[in-house]
Each structure stands twice: as structure tokens, then as C-alpha cells.
């Protein structure tokens, strides 16, 4: 046995043990997602670490003005916590929504069955008779049918079930749902698949995602200010420290511009009740074809959209029906002065 084969078998054995200890590492998709998460945390730690290591004035400020630094560190921790919370949250999978409906139906069927139970007494013992049709020979089959009925009810009459069925999950997609090839699942109100978070952004976690971008932007801006304050301070220091700080400042400023644009873009989507996917692929999405560009078919007005996005998140499996032709026509009507006075857009 050569040294190479011994090394190879040792390496393979160590890798197998590693996979047994953490099964998530065996999947290449999870592995890359894990690597990105580690990289993101490291990037945050390096930035803050360099800042505190180079800037002695910042250490003095911690003693003089502890609240200022405490707030900064609090934002730093909150951003990382929000990152992991968003990353671990469900975007609202169609299959989960179907299962939730199945459970709801099962509970409802059980309750109605109990109510229909005819209870008679014979020699002091209870005889319970159940209605066979209530039980159903194939409860899953009946539930699947109720899901199909529910989904079909959200589309215009005459829509074929075949056109709504996802060829990968074999499940009927409600409006605004899309199959994600990275997650290999259909997602409700699909926005996009975020590589940095390693998850999809959909109805279930869009609000958390917005808060994460918001916190990341605030942290980036604050760190930018601290970097500028360090460079502007009239203290004699090594040139290489200045060079590193300028490099960090340039990267931070570019990231800040991107984050701000991203935050504004997602705020616009929320206010108009759109998703990134719907905005980018508007002409290719069947249910959006033929709708004028400036018309937002799912918008219920700025205030209502904002309320539903922020406050009506108790149900993570929200299903939205397609607007009718009359509703689209109403939305296409140009705004008059009276509309602005009566807050039609709100
Ligand atoms: Zn699918
Ligand atoms: Zn995905």
C-alpha cells in the first residue's frame, strides 16, 4: 500500500465521520450555503475587529460615551441575529400550505363526524356508529381534491388544472407561486432565491428579509461614519493602517449604495404589492399578460399593502386570487383630482 492510498483512505474516513456528525455537509447545496454564512459572519467580524483594533479613539469613546458604542454593538448583533432568523425561516412552501389545509380539513371532518355520531345505549355500554362517507376511504385523495378546488377557485373559470400543476412537485400552484430550482419546491408569492441567505424569499419571510436589509444598511452606514471619523482624526499613525482603512471604506461605500438601492427597490415592491419575479418577468407570466405596465393587479392601495405586509403575517400560507377583468379595468382608470382627494391610491 502506497503512502498516497493511505492518505486518501484516511482523508475519506475523516470526511465520512464529518458527514455523519453533520449530515448537512454531505449535500453540496447546503455546504455552499454554510460556507457563505460563515463568510458573511467573518466579514462582519473582520470589519468591526479592524475598526476597534486600529482606532484607539473608539476605545476611549467606549469609556466616555458607553451608550454610543453599546448601541452600535447592539445593531451589529441584531443584524447577525436577523440574518440567521431570516435564513432559517420558511418562505411559505406550496406543499406545506396543502398539508396545512389537509390538517384543517381533517380536524373539520372529525368535528362534523363527532356531531353526526349516533350514540345509543345497550346494556349500559355505548355503541358508536359512524357515517362511512364522512370518514372517506382515501382521506388524502379527498384533501388533494379540496386543494385543487381551492386553487382553481383563484383562477378565471375554465382554467385547466394541468396548466397549474408543477411538473417537479406535482402540486397545483396558486397564483403568484413559482417553483424554485435551488430549493426544489414551489414557493407562495415567490420573490427570489437569495444565495447569501441560502433560502427563498416568499410570502412567509419577505417581511423578515426587508428588516434584515434595513438593519444591514444601517450597520453599513454607521461603520462608514466610524471609518471616516478615524481617517479624519488628526492623529499620527502608520501609513498602512490608513491604506487598509481606505480600502475598507471604499468596499463599505459600494456595499452601502447597493444596499440602499436594494432597500428602496423592495420598499417599492411592498408598497405596490409586487414581487421581484413578477416585475422582472412581467411579460412572461401568463396571469400578468395583457395588463398595462403601470397597473399593479394585486395592489390594494399603499396603506392596505403596507398593513398586510407588516401586520397581517399571522398566516404564512396566504393565497391570493387573481383579480377579475372588472377590477383590472377599475385599476387601469387614470387618476383624477377627486381620486387624489379621496385617497384612491392609498
Ligand atoms: Zn414545484
Ligand atoms: Zn429557493
TrEMBL record:
Q: What is known of its domains?
A: The DHHC domain is required for palmitoyltransferase activity.
Q: Give the UniProt subcellular location, in the record's own words.
A: Endomembrane system
Q: What is its EC number?
A: 2.3.1.225
User: Which Pfam families does the record associate with it?
Assistant: DHHC
Q: Which organism is it from?
A: Hevea brasiliensis (Para rubber tree)
Q: Which UniProt keywords apply?
A: Acyltransferase, Lipoprotein, Membrane, Palmitate, Transferase, Transmembrane, Transmembrane helix
Regions that span the bilayer: 34-54, 66-85, 209-231, 243-265
Major location category of this protein: membrane
- The first-level EC class reads transferase
Q: What is this protein called?
A: S-acyltransferase
> Carries keyword Transmembrane helix?
yes
InterPro entries membership = Palmitoyltrfase_DHHC, PFA4/ZDH16/20/ERF2-like
Task: Tell me the protein family, please.
Answer: Belongs to the DHHC palmitoyltransferase family.
Palmitoyltransferase DHHC domain span: 164-281
